Amino acid sequence: MQIGTLSERTGLSRDSLRFYEKRGLLQARRSANGYRDYPEEAVQWLGYVRTAQQLGFTLAEIAADLPLLAQGQDAGPALRDALARKLADVDARIAGLQSLRNELATRLAETPETGASCPLRSAT
């Protein structure tokens, strides 16, 4: 299918499709007239890419896993590993943000509404 049809079926702009192709996330054959010709499976692959991005995966992470799925191999174990790693990353970021929140709350509580005390000085 041509790029316009793929764009309509996926809701992605032609520029996005070209970008994904440039990054190796999407492959097109070139017809005799030079037009891109995408396989029917491209719609499904792009759905995977969009879902993975919504789950917080970077394009580099997606590119690393996409060949496995594209080759039709059993992706279950690899997908479970990737999801587990991403979940651990998210948990670590949440813990870091919670720690930051606690520090900000402490400094806010220690800061009088008026006065010269500066809550941004080192606690040491």
Automatic annotation (TrEMBL):
Record-level Gene Ontology MF annotations: DNA binding
Alphabetic keyword roster: DNA-binding, Transcription, Transcription regulation
Keyword Phosphoprotein carried by entry: no
Keyword Iron-sulfur listed: no
PROSITE patterns on file: HTH_MERR_1 (PS00552), HTH_MERR_2 (PS50937)
Limits of the HTH merR-type domain: 1-68
Pfam families: MerR_1 (PF13411)
InterPro entries: DNA-bd_dom_put_sf, MerR-type_HTH_dom, MerR_fam
Protein name (database record): DNA-binding transcriptional MerR regulator
Annotated organism of origin: Roseateles asaccharophilus
